[in-house]
Amino acid sequence: MQGERTIVTLSEHACFGGVQGFYRHQSEETGTPMKFGVFVPPQARTAPVPVLFYLAGLTCSEETFAIKAGAQRHAAEHGLMLVTPDTSPRDTGVDGADAAWDFGTAAGFYLDATEAPWRTNWRMGSYVTRELRRLVLAHFPAREDRVGLFGHSMGGHGALTLALNNPGLYQSVSAFAPIAAPMQCPWGVKAFTGYLGDDRAAWARHDATELVKAGARVPPLLIDQGLADKFLAEQLHPHLFEAACAAAGQPLTLRRHEGYDHGYYFIATFMADHLAHHAKHLSVG
User: Does the annotation mark 172 as catalytic?
Assistant: First the structure.
């Protein structure tokens, strides 16, 4: 691929008539090499297609969704491109980056850190919404006017907050088991304190529940939540987000499923519904 920024192809694989590829580039936002995956559906051979960005959860990488979610078959049916960024910069040399599984490496929380030593490299909000978006649109046959966003857990939090903070940037949004009120859970308090400091007003700009209360809006949302999810009661709080959306008039379909946990068996089960949701709002399929 040729263009203003160099992309290194790590691997490409034929998949449901399209191509699943993995790539690396030098990021200006994070100051590090960043990896990402792209599934290009067969329809892209003849015309640009809508593109759907997926944000993964804690401990995951650019490969997790592509390997585990079973999404490519459905994306090929709808003519959707899938993009999967990594969850944080890696190998930064920052002291403490690898000390915990829920903060630092593989735990970027899709925000731009303001606190040292994280603020130099941990810029996943700008990376996803600006740099990676521009890179994909420049190098792959994707439609700039048809872009969707979804994610799981920490990535579900990212999908909701990045869409709420960037009105009009995404034409479709959904989430699996998102951290829906991070100011009120241990994961969120730890991440926000470390990345953003003690100013809770700054935290609120990265909390989906608080953003909806403050007037932010996105296209109609689909959220799926397993009721056997071990993180549901302490970390996720979808009921708080549901109440905020109901009070604010933000369209939301929140589905609760008996017996389903937090993992990719749950995600794979309802993947077809999410890609149909995005295809509908991106006006394809």
Answer: no
